[in-house]
Design a protein that fits this description.
It contains six helices and three strands; from the N terminus they run H-H-H-E-H-E-E-H-H. The protein has about 170 residues and is mainly alpha-helical.
């Protein structure tokens, strides 16, 4: 089942990336997409995910699409914040590592959260303890060392939607 779900996902991505909008359908591209998706799923299918049945739910794709503008919004805010700090004459930074807790339990969900934190300027995931749900984050301006408050500031904005996608 893992290989089948991976094949479908890879082929859907191939179609989205190569679809000739407004032109005739390119059957050669579709055929090559089938071949590449098939062999990729054969090679990488076993390491794909622990629960491939979750990828069959349509609601997960809806929430994935919702997540993109939410992530981009917070990424833009973080970019502006980091730009302000860099351009400010006093360089107002207070760097440090904080410990935050996530409610996510799936490996894919924790990975997506850690990547979202790292891709947001001003924060970077340093270490993850998946068993306990702790993520250590390097923060450009540490506002608090309290786990709950830091979690609320850094994690919760992403976690709500990621929980709907991955769990």
């Amino acid at each position: 089942m893992k290989k089948g779900v991976l094949f479908i996902l890879l082929f859907m991505v191939w179609i989205l990336l190569t679809w000739p909008f407004g032109k005739d359908i390119d059957y050669q591209s579709i055929f090559i997409g089938l071949i590449v998706s098939f062999f990729s799923s054969l090679i990488f299918g076993d390491g794909f995910t622990q629960s491939p049945h979750k990828f069959l739910g349509v609601k997960r794709y809806f929430w994935s699409i919702v997540y993109i503008p939410v992530f981009l919004y917070y990424c833009l805010l973080a970019n502006l914040d980091v730009a302000f700090r860099v351009l400010h004459p006093a360089l107002p930074i207070n760097p440090g590592i904080v410990k935050v807790k996530t409610k996510l339990r799936s490996k894919s969900g924790i990975t997506a959260l850690a990547n979202s934190i790292t891709l947001t300027p001003g924060t970077m995931s340093v270490d993850v303890e998946p068993e306990s749900g702790y993520i250590y984050v390097h923060w450009i301006y540490v506002r608090t060392q309290d786990i709950e408050k830091a979690t609320e500031i850094i994690v919760r904005r992403f976690e709500k939607i990621l929980k709907r996608i991955f769990e």
